[in-house]
Amino acid sequence: MRKLILAGVAAMTLGAASAHADTILVNGDFENAFTGWTNTGDVAIYDSSSYGRLSGGDTTTNSFATFGRTDVSSNGVLSQTIATDVGQIYNLSFSYGAVGPDASFTAAMQSISVAIDGVTQFGTSAFSTNNLGAALADYTFSFTAGAGTSTLITFSDTSATTAE
């Protein structure tokens, strides 16, 4: 059993050149379950206390999205459409990691990709750990909003394996 975790997506802001850095995602901290998000496949919302029975440590976040909770193909997708200004640069910051139920699981490489309006912009991989407190790493990338007044942000589980 593998678990990808995504936390702290709340840091979706206008680019550094902007006069303000407003968070424009709805429920980026997952405190209100999937409110504001569309989810398909094997995606759920948990908190550190409910994960404590599987892995030691704490994410230092209250809630987070998980991908791949069971031995199914990598099919988890989490997305949100946000209002954007044409040509404006936006920064997307989030925390991501992978955990497994025991130390033997740590050899499994897990992957996630981020797409903007259906085009993959960023991908990263993490080796699983059985220490929830050490699982998360912070990531940031920038993108320029396209021609429309809204932008679709999508996180997808792209892991090659589903279980060890």
How would you sum up this structure in a few lines?
The chain is mainly beta. The chain contains 1 helix and 10 strands. It has one helix at 48-51; strands spanning 3-14, 38-40, 43-47, 63-67, 77-83, 89-99, 109-116, 119-127, 137-144, 150-157.
Describe, in plain words, how this protein is organized in 3D.
By secondary structure, the chain is an all-beta fold. It is built from 1 helix and 10 strands, in the order βββαβββββββ. The protein has one helix spanning 48-51; strands at 3-14, 38-40, 43-47, 63-67, 77-83, 89-99, 109-116, 119-127, 137-144, 150-157. The strands form 2 sheets. Strands 3-4-1-6-9 form a 5-stranded antiparallel sheet. The radius of gyration is 16 Å and the shape is globular. Residues 14-21 have low confidence and may be disordered.
Compute the separation of the termini in Å: 6 Å
Radius of gyration: 16 Å
Derived structural class: mainly beta
Mean pLDDT rating: 75
Specify the overall morphology.
globular
Helicity range? under 10%
Oligomer: single chain
Strand content: over 45%
Number of helices: 1
How are helices and strands ordered from N to C? Answer: EEEHEEEEEEE
For the largest beta sheet, what order do the strands appear in spatially? 3-4-1-6-9
The major pleated sheet works out as:
5 strands, antiparallel
How many strand elements?
10
**Residue runs with pLDDT of under 50 for 5 or more positions:** 14-21
Provide the descriptors you would attach to this structure in a database record.
mainly beta, 1 helix, 164 residues, globular, five-stranded antiparallel sheet
